[in-house]
From TrEMBL:
Keywords: Methyltransferase, Transferase. Residues 163-365 form the Ribosomal RNA large subunit methyltransferase K/L-like methyltransferase domain. Residues 68-154 form the THUMP domain. The keyword Transferase applies. PANTHER family: RIBOSOMAL RNA LARGE SUBUNIT METHYLTRANSFERASE K/L (PTHR47313), RIBOSOMAL RNA LARGE SUBUNIT METHYLTRANSFERASE K_L (PTHR47313:SF1). It comes from Apilactobacillus xinyiensis. Residues 5-59 form the RlmL ferredoxin-like domain. GO terms for biological process: methylation. Gene3D superfamilies: 3.30.2130.30, Vaccinia Virus protein VP39. This is Class I SAM-dependent RNA methyltransferase. The keyword Transit peptide does not apply. GO terms for molecular function: methyltransferase activity.
Length: 376
């Protein structure tokens, strides 16, 4: 089976986690800013789309080269093996990006790269009229950085964070792949208690339950490449069947999802039900300051409100103080909070063990980590 040069794209700050996921799946990796390179067959493309929890997309690297003129861009793009990838009726829109390069006009980059692909396919399929572009989608992109061009073809379709279980949304929901990354950055194992005291639409506890059950995050959705003419449907089914066999529905888990807003608990329950995990998560309407537990060696992961607007600031500061009052005494528990408020430590009342810079969408945030001392 043919091997492709591939890249898994990722949000800034979590490329290393994507790299670790790929290594855990058995791939050799090269981690770069915003992406991780690896090699694989079509089966690997389906498998990584299905299993990667923290990546955004899996792309085929069709080719890469340096280009300093539009003629060079055209000729080198045309020379790539498009006839091996695109059938005559393929729909192949071209996206473009350019950074610190001589070819800085993105519309021109898109237009010329697209013309190069059209020229190659027209020659190959002996077409004198326009290509129909009436078939399946093969999304292309030409990225230029410091005059180095990478031409890719997206295999994913809608971003991998769209797991398919979020049927109900709350305000400013955390993306599923970011939620998975936050959990992977903790010391939580599925035999430990897990709590999100401000669960919103339930993304963090649902992702935790999927990890505990070893459920492939892409099980509830399709990928663009599964519709491609040259990919055998039975191969896709084989990879999905193998993933189903890995799922563990018998393991006992202790995952708690609380929120002061009863409507958000209803939303979270709907999403958990869609993921098939409603009975694996203990949902409860509860204010942070009312939380009590006798459990030990647990992990708290939460994305509390940030208080971006001035009128929210006081209530958010009070919430951070309440978090400190409730969770500081739980010394065997590890606590992890994602917020853009750099004064979080001051109001929580404790210096962090570690802080990590992450981007939640385009918003710079910090992941405040308080490591517990396990009771043996």
């Amino acid at each position: 089976m043919k091997k492709f040069n591939l890249m898994a794209t990722a949000a800034a700050g979590i490329e290393g986690i994507v790299g670790q996921e790929l290594r855990d799946l058995g791939y050799e990796t090269n981690v770069e800013n915003g992406r991780v390179r690896f090699e694989g067959t079509i089966e690997d493309i389906i498998k990584t789309n299905l299993w990667l929890r923290t990546a955004d997309r899996i792309k085929i690297i069709v080719g890469e080269f340096n280009a300093y003129t539009f003629d060079e861009l055209f000729e080198k793009t045309k020379a790539l093996p498009w006839e091996e990838l695109l059938p005559m009726d393929a729909a192949f829109p071209m996206n473009g990006r350019s950074h610190n390069s001589k070819l800085h006009s993105v519309p021109d980059v898109q237009s010329i790269a697209k013309k190069a692909v059209v020229s190659k396919l027209s020659d190959f399929y002996h077409r004198r009229t326009r290509l129909p572009e009436s078939g399946n989608l093969y999304q292309l992109e030409t990225m230029i950085n410091k005059d180095h061009v990478i031409v890719t073809m997206d295999t994913t379709g809608e971003s991998l964070f769209k797991r398919g279980y979020r049927v109900a949304k709350g305000p400013a929901p955390l993306k599923e792949n970011m939620a998975a990354a936050l959990i992977m950055l903790t010391n939580w194992y599925p035999d430990m208690p897990f709590l999100d005291p401000m669960c919103g639409s339930g993304t963090l506890p649902i992702e935790a339950a999927m990890m505990a059950r070893k459920i492939a995050p892409g099980f509830n959705r399709d990928f663009a490449c599964e519709k491609w003419d040259w990919i055998d449907e039975s191969l896709s089914q084989k990879v999905r069947d193998e993933a189903d066999l890995k799922a563990d529905y018998d393991k006992e888990v202790d995952i708690m999802a609380y929120d002061v807003d009863g409507n958000m608990i209803d939303v979270a329950k709907l999403n958990a039900q869609e993921a098939g995990l409603l009975h694996d998560i203990q949902f409860k309407q509860l204010a942070v300051q009312d939380f009590k537990t006798d459990k030990v060696n647990g992990v708290v992961v939460s994305n509390p409100p940030y208080g971006e607007r001035l009128d929210d600031k006081r209530s958010v500061e009070k919430l951070y103080k309440d978090l400190g009052k409730v969770f500081r005494p739980l010394t065997s528990w590890s606590k992890y909070f994602l917020t853009s408020d750099l004064e979080f430590e001051k109001f929580y009342g404790q210096k962090v063990t570690k802080k990590r810079k992450l981007y939640n969408g385009y918003l710079r945030t910090d992941y405040f980590q308080y490591w517990g001392k396990k009771i043996r």
